[in-house]
Amino acid sequence: MKKRKGVSLQTKIIVLIVAIIMTIILVLTGLFAKMEYEQTQNNMGTLALQVANTVSLMPSLRDAFKEDDPSAVIQPLIEKVRKDVGAEFIVIGNTDSIRYAHPDEKKIGKKMIGEDNDRAILHGESYISEATGSLGPSLRGKSPIFDLNGDIMGVVSVGFLVDDLKEAAFNNMKTVLIVSAGAILFGISCGVLLAKNIRKDILGLEPYEIASLYHERNAILSSVKEGIIAIDENGLITMLNPAARNILNIEKDGLNKKIESVIPDTDIYRVLETGEAEKNLDVMLGERRVIVNRTPIIENGQVTGVVASFRDKTEIDEMVNTLSEVKQYSEELRAQTHEFTNKLYVLSGLMQLGKYDEAVKMIQNESGNHEHMQKIVFEQLADSNLQAILLGKMAKASEKKINFTIDADSRTESFPAHITISHLITMIGNIIDNAFEATEGKSERNVSFFTTDIGKDIVFEVSDNGYGISDSDMEKIFEKGFSTKAEQGRGYGLSLVSQTIHQLSGHLEVYQKDDGGSVFTVFLPKEVKE
């Protein structure tokens, strides 16, 4: 399924970092600006009040109030003071708030605006106020003017415009804003570098691609029949698929555990040290014989881990043996066809010579033997897999001139599902073939087969009149590679038989007959406990 491409990881990281930095900077800048404005306002208000107090104590100002035209004296005096201290305005008013001095001489003689003189004129207080006057919103320092008797003569108002306060605060904030802009640019640069470094670590993949690969990896590991284990450079298990748990009988999750605690006596550390892959090794893992492949994980020229895949060797042997048996059955059927073709030629010759009685006798002998055996196979044995195997062995016995009989008392129903045709070929096929070989050299070669499923077990019994098995060989016949024959590539049949019977929770008994032959008896439970 094609997935829609989302926002790239690099873009997400850059946007996130820039958003965090800008949020922090904006919050801190706002707080600093507020503090700076309040500090500037406090400083300006204090300065205005101090100037107002100082002006109110000037003797020349008090003397000017006694003149016929106080403004003529006060205006130039106060303007000089205003310019010296840098105030926006210094206004002098009498007890009726009539101006005697103002930066705009046109407003002299008019009443002061702001309605904030009462505390100074009526109560003699010095204070800071904020009001809107003729020049606009301003921060003012108010102080009363006392005569020598202590009576209130007027009021001094020293002010700074609010716009000037804001401008002063902004000028003080320029350095902060420049540093903030630099911090934002630095954050963007760091975000880009961080995003590139992360993309390099994850091989340039986007998060949605990593998620897709993760789900695909889990699906693949769950579907494969081979066990797969991966370890890191410290020997800790980083991956363990369900097939590996099943083959190794691991009930609990073994992730992040030392490999030797899960698989004792493992040689996987050898690959970790040498960095060389190992292919198709036949080893024992726990109680299972498996075929193992080990491959090192190499990153930047260093071995950072090992992946080991393995499969139960019994399954592989069963598959190979099944294919071998199928090929053998095919060859046996061709041989049987050849044999019956020869018999047809003989019958044709007898008919041409006019020896009809001999021809009829030959037909009756052949049909009588096969009809009896086939009747047992098809009417008393209900399992089709067992029927196919026995028919093949009957053909092989006929070719090799072996008297292969199926006991008339043999009876079975269809076998349970856990006993497959592969199991039957491995067990019955190999035991019967061994019995055929055991009779080589005998003038009369007899092999019999019996089976029953009465009770809780399915029983198979193969008997021959061969030379038997010596006591010294009896303990070795189920060992892999052991054979009484001198040919190469032998000694695997009975070993596979033993493994298959063990896998099906059954057991095998072998004993010698009085006449020297051998009897192999297999017991398989119909129900296998998990």
From TrEMBL:
It is a multi-pass membrane protein. The keyword Protein biosynthesis does not apply. SUPFAM superfamilies: ATPase domain of HSP90 chaperone/DNA topoisomerase II/histidine kinase (SSF55874), PYP-like sensor domain (PAS domain) (SSF55785), Sensory domain-like (SSF103190), Sporulation response regulatory protein Spo0B (SSF55890). It is found in: Cell membrane. Keywords: ATP-binding, Cell membrane, Kinase, Membrane, Nucleotide-binding, Phosphoprotein, Transferase, Transmembrane, Transmembrane helix, Two-component regulatory system. CDD domains: PAS (cd00130). The lineage of its organism: Bacteria, Bacillati, Bacillota, Bacilli, Bacillales. Residues 335-528 form the Histidine kinase domain. InterPro entries: HATPase_C_sf, HATPase_dom, His_kinase_dom, PAS, PAS-like_dom_sf, PAS_fold, sCache_3, Sensor-like_sf. Pfam families: HATPase_c (PF02518), PAS (PF00989), sCache_3_2 (PF17203), SPOB_a (PF14689). The chain crosses the membrane at residues 12-33, 175-195. Its EC number is 2.7.13.3. It catalyses: ATP + protein L-histidine = ADP + protein N-phospho-L-histidine. It comes from the Bacteria. This is histidine kinase. The keyword Lyase does not apply. GO terms for molecular function: kinase activity.
